[in-house]
Design brief:
single chain, 320 residues, alpha/beta, six-stranded mixed beta sheet, five-stranded mixed beta sheet, globular
Length: 320
């Protein structure tokens, strides 16, 4: 049986960051388990590939939400990454810190340490910015690139029209005045996607082990009480004809990162981890299930127009 100081279940965005932080000292053995497969795929590494991974079941859980009263009772498609790096491996690469006022609101609601002044240093510590001229600043592992020189010139007409209507326009969604319309910064480096797995998980540390593909765990033996040991068993597939079970034990902590979404979907009802952990006499050190951050999700709306075009019209567009 193998021993690890920390076991992280879920190698999504949060899981990769957590694995990086826990393994940084080099003293503790860290294991991270992922139900999805490898992210070493052409359509993941190629930025435009998100148009394909958006609905690719091999790397996407393809969730469907419950009926939403705010959407007239409709259920909408909810893509979530089923791969190393999680949704950061299949999303549209857009990077936004969020609105400072939202963080301050969370702090005022009693979430100590979540105000904008509290979290901003952690954003800055993680980022490496590349401006429109190609100049880099910051030494963080997370690449944030200004790609406005590569965008279509017509964006200026669109932003100008917004300004004429009195709508706010911003030059930087991650700057001091992020509210308004503008151009996104993206997580790209050298023309390739930089997911959470690329940025945080693969820093060359010897004490971090990543298990995939398709690591599905089951609790084999529970030892509640003073030692707080947990045994997990999962299959290891080396080939179609060779599969064996590997048993591991954590000596300090077990972290469930992003697992709540999958469990809630399976049961079709709200899940309280507190009740489930208490059932096995596990002590919860930190629970953020009721944090407002876990209740927010972006709603993306596509506007499309269907037009009948003649061949001559298409040729004229091509000339431009």
């Amino acid at each position: 049986m193998e021993n690890f100081d920390y076991i992280i279940i879920g190698a999504g965005s949060a899981g990769c960051v957590l694995a990086d932080r826990l393994s940084a000292s080099g003293r503790d053995r860290v294991l991270i388990l992922e139900a999805g497969g490898t992210d070493r795929r052409f359509w993941i590494k190629t930025p435009i590939g998100y148009g394909r991974t958006f609905a690719e079941p091999a790397v996407n859980w393809k969730y469907q939400t419950c009926p939403n009263p705010g959407l007239n009772g409709r259920s909408i498609y909810w893509p979530r990454g089923r791969v190393l790096g999680g949704s950061s491996s299949i999303n549209a690469l857009v990077y936004c810190r969020g609105m400072p006022a939202d963080f301050d609101d969370w702090r005022q609601m009693g979430n100590v340490g979540w105000g904008w002044d509290d979290v901003r240093p952690y954003f800055e510590r993680s980022e490496r910015h590349v401006d429109a001229a190609g100049n880099a600043s910051g030494a963080g592992p997370l690449d944030v690139k200004d790609v406005t020189p590569f965008l279509h010139p017509m964006r200026q007409n669109w932003l100008g029209a917004a300004a004429e209507l009195g709508l706010p326009v911003t030059d930087d969604f991650n700057g001091p005045h992020p509210e308004g319309l503008g151009c996104y910064q993206v997580t790209i480096r050298n023309g390739m996607r930089r997911s959470a797995a690329d940025r945080f998980e693969r820093l060359g540390v010897h004490n971090l082990e990543v298990v995939e593909p398709h690591a599905r765990c089951r609790t084999k033996d529970l030892h509640p009480g003073l030692d707080q040991l947990i045994h997990l068993a999962f299959p290891v597939i080396k080939s179609l004809l060779h599969c064996h079970e590997r048993t591991i034990r954590n000596q300090r902590h077990l972290s469930l990162v992003g697992v709540k979404i999958g469990i809630a979907r399976a049961h079709r009802q709200p899940i309280t981890f507190t009740d489930r952990c208490h059932r096995h006499d596990f002590q919860i050190e930190i629970q953020i299930g009721d944090h407002p951050l876990n209740r927010a999700e972006l709603l993306k709306v596509f506007l499309a127009e269907q037009r009948d075009m003649r061949l001559d019209d298409i040729e004229e567009l091509g000339d431009d």
